[in-house]
Description:
Layout lengths: L15 H9 L8 H10 L1 H6 L4 H6 L3 H10 L3 H16 L6 H5 L8 E4 L15 H16 L3 E6 L7 E4 L5 E4 L10 E3 L10 E5 L2 E12 L2 E7 L7 H4 L10 H21 L6 E5 L6 H13 L3 H9 L2 E4 L10 E2 L1 H15 L2 H8 L11 E2 H7 L3 E4 L2 H10 L15 E2 L6 H4 L2 H10 L11 H4 L7 H29 L4 H7 L8 E6 L15 H9 L5 E6 L7 H14 L8 E4 L4 H10 L2 E4 L11 H7 L3 E5 L4 H4 L6 E3 L8 H24 L9 H14 L5 H16 L10
Parallel strand pairs: 1-2, 1-9, 2-8, 9-10, 10-13, 13-14, 15-16, 15-18, 16-17, 18-19, 19-20
Antiparallel strand pairs: 3-4, 5-7, 6-7, 7-8, 11-12
The structure holds pyridoxal-5'-phosphate.
Pyridoxal-5'-phosphate binds next to helix 8, helix 24 and helix 25.
Amino acid sequence: MTTASPSTTAPLQLTFGEKLWALARNYWWSWHPEVQVIFYELNPQRWRELDQNPVLLLSEYSPEQLEQRGREAVLYSRVNYAYRRWQEYMESARTDSWGAENVGVLGHRPVAYFSAEFGIHESLPNYSGGLGVLAGDHLKSASDLGIPLVAIGLFYHEGYFSQLIDETGWQQEVYSHVKNEQLPIRLVKNAEGETVFVRVDTRQGPMFAQAWQVDVGRVKLYLLDVNIEQNSPEDRKLTARLYGGDQRTRIRQEIVLGLGGARLLTALGYDPHVLHMNEGHSAFAPLEFIRMRMHDDHLSFDEALKDVARMCCFTTHTPVAAGHDRFDYGLIDEHLGPIADDLGIGSGGIMGMGRLDPNNQHEAFCMTVLAFKCSRTANGVSNLHGVVSRRMWAGLWPWRSEEEVPIGHVTNGVHVGSWLAWPMQQLYNRVLPTAWATNQADPKTWEPLNELSPGELWETHEALKTNLIAFARYRLIRRAKRLKLPEAEIQALANILNPEALTIGFARRFAPYKRADLVLRDLDFFRKIIADSKRPVQFLFAGKSHPADNGGKTILRNIYNLTQEPDFKGKVVLLEDYDINLAKYLVSGVDVWLNNPRRPLEASGTSGQKVVLNGGLNCSILDGWWAEAYDGTNGFAIGSGRAHANQEIQDERDAKAVMKTLLEEVIPLYYERDNDDLPQAWIARMMRSIITLSPKFNSDRMVMDYVTSGYVPAAGGVICQMKR
Ligand SMILES: *Cc1c(COP(=O)(O)O)cnc(C)c1O
């Protein structure tokens, strides 16, 4: 970390404006609040209106205006300082990082990380939920740790949808065309300045893709784009939307991601040492590496498969059988036929690689099965999910007992720089050692937080809560104006929600298994909690439902309808368009984060980990990460972690358990105040939560685990067993 003073002048070659543009073009700024503040101060109102997109903001200024504004707002020395820190960061990867000491075996050959979605910042709509945000956090931590890693994804022209809730509470999906020139991305060209294209063959003819480069700190992310004139009008729409379209769209997206991605790496001169498949969407990638190995080294298919599997790591995320992509023979032959012929195994051979039983003609092809068969190490994303995955996929290793199935786990974590709110970060900076951000995975790093004064921690938390409430009002008013609601109603929205009340947040995708409406099952009970004026409680809900999921949309509408009833109005609110931006306000402002999935369907969950960093408390079913996090003192557990074969019984039991935990534990503890009106026992629990959970559930620790248990062995280094 640099100690240079902000007043010294930076290299003179670049002007103030050029430095700002350079900073804007690398998403490094998105996890450095001191840089965000510069963009903010350039024009606070436009910054918010443009959804914190610095490229858009800077585009509104001519170079002269930018220099002028820099002088007015006295930003010159701060920009110089930020620019130099960024330069130092970019250059120190090989000398001054965890990676420099621990990934020597990778040499100059990087890890290639494949994912169908990446959630880096709200300005780049390349994610639908947790999987994407996790991939984004993975890249940021790999960058911070100095891991040589290059990432491959797809460029979606319309991204995932923006959600509007109409007057009746029904979800409307709005797709807007992503404007490339408004993003910090650039078209990938070769040394001669020509656009690089990759080709993927199908039985019906070839498809082509170009690629966009996104800089995420030191990590380069390449997004493949098929919307180019070489392709048929139909194919040009193939990557318009994330998870849109039918099975045929899906497999075509996946050959572009896997086969096209592998070819792009080769075209750009990368010779990866390790392939990491984040979920099964990219499972075709190893096939292209096998093809290359057979061609270059004159190996047989079996020899090449063995060679390539040695370098592959696979992370599965889905404990629901229906959540895994499956294709029939027709689709496989059409799309994998050409490469199957090259590999000498034919489409029948490819089908076999995607089946539990290769010879079972009735079994569909499954991407997850292919990924397992091509990988040296495989993992679930929490301890419990590891157990569930071993049970789920035991059929792949029929000669092994369940606990011998070679699927381990690496529990998910979140990127601290991205998810720890700036005011809380400044508070931590006062008591933590200066280099704390580079030692997050060490429990000792966080221990000095014990010295924080409870009053200060509480005040900072309360300030963040006020921030959340102000943002919620702003969003609700924006919606009300759009719907042209009566002026009186808009006025009322300016005062809803009480900054003193116990504030409970629930926000995530509205997949039915997440049971957003569990607290509404016993409505009389819920009404009683909300009606208590001595111990006020309020709820904020948010989340998108998949466009095809009417069950999820109905849950959303039920919650919306409730927010309109007199008993709940102003105390239970539903915020539209849950994205990374709204998530940042929610996870840093709530007192309690509620999570009540149907166990064991939440593979990990990560939003609660973001809450931990900011001092909020988790109140959750013992599922996913919480099953290994909760120790009786660092949050609240709902129920005892039992599941029931009968879903209705399980839901009924869990609904009772949520109410019991809220009524008997959460609410009384929150309202137990000392003479200064401080909830001392509550604050002690906040402290326990931050100190015991932050070192474990951050993405630096996660990436370090992947390095030691996955990447290093895959690159031929010392083999450590994947944790069980
Ligand atoms: C963190 C995050 C998620 C994932 O949350 P879960 O707890 O895994 O449901 C989803 N969406 C957004 C916008 C997020 O920031």
